[in-house]
Specification:
The chain is α+β, with helices and mostly antiparallel strands. It contains 5 helices and 6 strands; from the N terminus they run αβααββαββαβ.
Length: 144
């Protein structure tokens, strides 16, 4: 995670060194997003905690990108790095608009250029009611 309260560039470099030592095949890196109404957001607003400036967070991003690429990881999505051949198949299929079928509660599918999702209601799902609703892929609110 980038942009955590009190985090600095040295923290990022220390974490990167340890991650590279562990030698994982795939790494995901995300920036903190403060959600309105959360305790963390409220504490930052009150000045009890602070997050790095945008300038420092961008430096963190570029430190991560450059360090991981120098260590042999391919940056294949905005938040994902992988050793060659270990990119997420599902992520790549989504980017390439390949069809997929999701099974289970709140699962998503993409068939014939239409996105579907199962109910997010566990009670309905367990009763066997699994309504699927088409999602308009041209709808800007559709993030699936």
């Amino acid at each position: 995670m980038l942009g955590l309260p009190t985090q600095n560039l040295q923290d990022i470099q220390t974490d990167l060194n340890r991650i590279i030592e562990l030698n994982p095949e795939h790494i995901s890196v995300y920036s903190l997003i403060l959600e309105e109404g959360t305790l963390l957001q409220q504490r930052i607003e009150k000045g009890e905690l602070y997050t790095p400036s945008e300038v420092i967070e961008r430096k963190m991003y570029w430190t991560v990108k450059n360090t991981l690429e120098e260590a042999g990881y391919k940056h294949y999505e905005i938040s994902n790095y992988a050793k060659p051949g270990f990119e997420s198949k599902h992520n790549m299929d989504c980017w390439e608009q390949k069809e997929y079928i999701g099974f289970g509660l709140a699962a998503h599918s993409y068939i014939n250029n239409i996105r579907y999702s199962n109910t997010e209601n566990l009670e309905l799902y367990c009763r066997g009611r699994r309504p699927r609703r088409p999602e308009n892929k041209n709808n800007p609110r559709n993030t699936n």
